[in-house]
Amino acid sequence: MARIVQQKRQVAINPLKSSQPLGAAFAYLGVDRAMPLFHGSQGCTSFALVLFVRHFKETIPLQTTAMDEVATILGGADHLEEAILNLKSRTKPSLIGVCTTALVETRGEDFAGDIAAIRMRRADDLGDTEVVLSSTPDFDGAIEEGWRKAVTSMIEGVTRPGEQPRDPKKLAILPGWHLTVADIELIRETVESFGLQPVILPDISGALDGTVPDRWIPTTYGGTKVEDIRALGDCFQAIAIGEHMRPAAEALQARTGVPYVLFQQLVGMKAIDRFVTMLAMISGNRVPAKVRRRRAQLQDALLDGHFHFGGKRVALAAEPDHLYQLSTFFTGLGAEIVAAVTTTGSSGILAKVQAETVQVGDLADLEDMAAGADLLVTHSHGRQAAQRLGIPLMRVGFPIFDRLGSQHRRTVLYEGARDLIFEAANIFQAGGHQPTPEELNPFRNRETDNDSRPTSFTRH
């Protein structure tokens, strides 16, 4: 069990985490025709928008209530109502996801009451547009908590309550924030290969997959439809991926009675086998040939790649669930985790991270702990530390802005685990020392006499 070390410094030197409202907006971006709305100043929204655009290289719909000094003092309910009505009339979204920021959270306003009053007073103006709230102050938590709160709020605010007839072929998939666009596409394809129908919430693979629409669309396009969120109670089973998605799965179960299964990671062979076996049992079908072939490819990759991981020292910095997934992956191949840094100490998964200690901190802490490591694993902001330490950097998580195609990398299931093995092993090979023929000579270090001839041995 890992020991959790809380952060002692009062300031971040090289920040590791992204804010809660960014995480909530990220989840709302996975809903079709949605508009995330930051309740706060323009600066809070601009910061998140820059990170999204740099990571995805796409147009990101993101709006703000643009709180000024007077509204901050007197209260922002009027600004919130005006922003919601303007978005409804101008962009006609199916869902407006309100994310609070530190500015308004510090004042202690009753946001839930304000939104309930707006929805009641302006019911005719809002029509069928759903308005949901996530309480996400910047000064607390990180991207993982924001994503979790947004998904939970959509289930609690949109999904029809009460037990309903359940479709035995319909599954609710609740993916964690750390799954890429390609990961979610792969999960969908795998579930569908068993003859099942997945409803993924949120589905960023439909909204942030890099496609270019044939016309200007002011909201998100693609992703989970609001009608599907309302009908989640029809699902036979819910599958949550990542410990931070447990509250969302529990909310769905409490609201509709749909049972859930939680997978803390889908990168290890045992966990993936369990996932595939469950799909086979629910569907009553055999595992498709293409899935069995991908498993055989992962087995071969494990055989080919484990030589390059044995004894390697790896330093990790990521959000809690992502940190657990990465530590499981590297230690499973024989590497040692010499540094593990995360953003918040509130997650229960941190105790299971495959390291002696987990430091809650920033990238400066990672740099202090990673001296002598063979590989640094974190997002693009870790590139300066890697350069100063002379250690190669494997970019994971969010944001990755100095490489193209990060959203199309697979990191889960058989195919994703295989690709991760190849990526990390290739970095080890590129940075490793290749022995020369002289170094491989077994007689090179043999003792010699004074005239440089081999020492003679007396036969008895």
UniProtKB/TrEMBL annotation:
SUPFAM superfamilies: Helical backbone' metal receptor (SSF53807). The lineage of its organism: Bacteria, Pseudomonadati, Pseudomonadota, Alphaproteobacteria, Hyphomicrobiales. Keywords: Nitrogen fixation. Residues 432-460 are annotated as: Disordered. PROSITE patterns: NITROGENASE_1_1. One of its GO terms (biological process) is protein-containing complex assembly. This is Nitrogenase iron-molybdenum cofactor biosynthesis protein NifN. Pathway: Cofactor biosynthesis; Fe-Mo cofactor biosynthesis. This protein may play a role in the biosynthesis of the prosthetic group of nitrogenase (FeMo cofactor). Residues 19-428 form the Nitrogenase/oxidoreductase component domain. One of its GO terms (molecular function) is nitrogenase activity. Belongs to the NifD/NifK/NifE/NifN family. It comes from Ciceribacter ferrooxidans.
